[in-house]
Fold this protein.
Amino acid sequence: MTSAIAATRASSDRYRLRHVMRSELTKFLSLRSTRWTLFAFPIVGVALGILIGALTGAHWPDMSAGSRKVWDPTNNVLAGLIPGYLVIPVLGVMMMGSEYASGSIRSTLLAVPRRRTVLAAKAVVFAAVALAACEIVTFATFIAGQSVTGSAPRATFGQPGVLRALLLSGAFLALMGVFGLGIGTIIRRSGPAVAVYAGLVLVIPMILQSVPGNLWRYGPIMILGNSVGAVKIPPGLPSPWVGFAVMALYTTITMAVAAVVLVRRDA
């Protein structure tokens, strides 16, 4: 028995991060939830961007001078990314939660006993796929939305702050997904993990609006919608780079806790 365990460990020592990443990419892309999300999110995001751009063009002549002065055409059409606030993090939750639900996590950890390597591979694979998908959706939504704004002002890539807003918006969504992966690793069950994510991202910031100190400004969705994805930043909100750093901090802390929990807890 001891020799069998030793042989298994010796065999697993051959697996390096790149090998585990290749395996995790195959598993991730084989998930039905992944395929559906990568198919539907671009369609829904672009459709919403077009709808928002068209409605803006229709109502622009009736807008007040004050509303026109603070108008941000970039931030306006990026509201099409709203579905990504939920579907990308849920996809992150499912990347780990689906393995616990099926029991395949035992096989994964038997093949690769270095649990931090498993989590790192999942995080790198998810971040790469999510970043590519989110950037594509962000730019496509922007282009489609700006093309139908009619008489309303349009934003272009060359205008100050526009390219930054687009690039950071896609990257921010990918970070939210890795944040979801961390929560899924800590909780292990997809349903409760999604509920915890919704509570942290949606419910708590709403509660904090009634608490002195304006802590609600640092909720992920508030940061993305009014800071990272904006060219004209409303007063009192963090700058885009500060907001992005805050989300990176949330994600880093969550993944650090996930790594500790994964190592210490039985599969």
User: Anything to note?
Assistant: Residues 135 and 170 are 4 Å apart (CA to CA). The mean pLDDT is 90. Residues 115-146 form the longest helix (32 residues).
